[in-house]
Specification:
Blueprint: H1 4-13, E1 20-23, E2 27-31, E3 41-45, H2 57-78, E4 82-86, E5 96-102, H3 127-142
Antiparallel strand pairs: 1-2, 2-3, 3-5, 4-5
Helix pairs in contact: 2-3
Length: 143
Amino acid sequence: MNCLACDRIEQIKQNKNPRFIVELSQSYVVLGDEQFYRGWCVLLFKQHHEQLPQLPVDQQRELWNDVAAVAGAVYRELKPVRINYECLGNQLHHIHWHIIPRFADDPDSTQPVWLRPAPNRRGSLSAADEKKLIAQLSSAIQG
């Protein structure tokens, strides 16, 4: 099986994923590759499963608690106008959640981020800014 999420989880376990933020009950949290929306985080479910309904309801609740903890930290630390929550599976067939902060200066504030052309949402941070943001979010999530 070739799964990008499983590969990233393995990198986390080997301490080789520079975007790793924190381990939670049901997920590993990483800083998203696309930082046009500063603070975009992705939660990777710890085991390879493709569908939420295949999980016991208690495990689904625990995963949602992880999502809520990350969203709360992003909201407190970065002060977005709102947060988008997305659990997709169209391209990456591994349960994962996107936590996407949306700010007042967002050029497409009424549209899903996925409608923005991929090259236009691939903003990046300097290595120093990325490291600082990861530390800030890690501290806030573990709070």
